[in-house]
Design a protein that fits this description.
The chain has 2 domains: about 110 residues, Rossmann fold, CATH 3.40.50.1860; about 110 residues, Rossmann fold, CATH 3.40.50. It has 9 helices and 8 strands. The protein has a 4-stranded parallel beta sheet, sandwiched between helices.
């Protein structure tokens, strides 16, 4: 069997280790190649929305991945997930997945009251919109409750890991008070906080394992 190569598109260094760890654990035979532009997330925070200029800048990373002859691409930044339709149009000759689509689909199938914790301001509304769109596509009505805690991301950038996890936990508690059925940790970088939430008795979904499984299954089906 061919040893496939996956291109990982990042807008923050914080997403790199969680997704690499998931591939190492689940698919050690898969080669991963990272393509990074940290300025993308900062520019998005400044603009408040994905502008045509940012779409071009993001697409340039995928272009580099294609030039590296990857077999598939995973977009690791939730804030840029809405670009996936455009990216698939531009690069139709290989499978492209975003980091949160499979996780969101799983969430919609599991519950009716869905909690979302995000640590980047734009990721909260983006994930909420994606959940509602997925629910509509699946013919299901859901309620979505969002907690955005930008202090968590700031702590992670300063490598204050315990503080990051504590901020995430405080947002999770607020959602539990709203009696949600499950909670989505919206970004790859938040996955580490799950280990400190072991006492939470509802599902907490994170994207590294789910998204790595999704892109690998899509690659295998695409090249079958």
């Amino acid at each position: 069997m061919k040893n496939y190569k996956v291109g990982l598109i990042h807008a923050t260094l914080n997403s790199v280790n969680p997704i690499l760890a998931a591939f190492a654990k689940n698919f050690p035979e898969i080669e991963t190649v990272n393509f990074m532009d940290e300025g993308l997330l900062r520019a998005l925070d400044k603009e408040g929305e994905i502008t045509p200029k940012l779409v071009e800048r993001f697409a340039s990373l995928l272009g580099r991945a294609v030039e590296t002859e990857v077999d598939g691409i995973l977009l690791s930044c939730s804030a840029y997930s809405p670009t996936i339709t455009e990216m698939r149009k531009r690069f139709p000759k290989l499978p492209i997945e975003n980091v949160d689509d499979a996780m969101i689909e799983q969430a919609v199938k599991l519950g009716n009251r869905i909690g979302v914790v995000a640590s980047v301001a734009t990721a909260g509304p983006t994930t909420e919109k994606a959940v509602k769109e997925k629910a509509e596509a699946l013919g299901k009505e859901v309620e979505v409750f969002v907690e955005v805690n930008t202090e968590a991301f700031a702590a992670l950038n300063k490598k204050e890991f315990e503080a990051h996890d504590s901020y995430v936990a405080s947002s999770v508690k607020k959602l539990l008070d709203k009696q949600v059925d499950l909670i989505i940790l919206a970004q790859l970088s938040m996955a580490r906080a799950k280990t400190s939430l072991k006492d939470v008795d509802i599902p907490i979904l994170t994207s590294p394992d789910i998204s790595s499984n999704k892109i690998v299954s899509e690659i295998k089906a695409f090249y079958r």
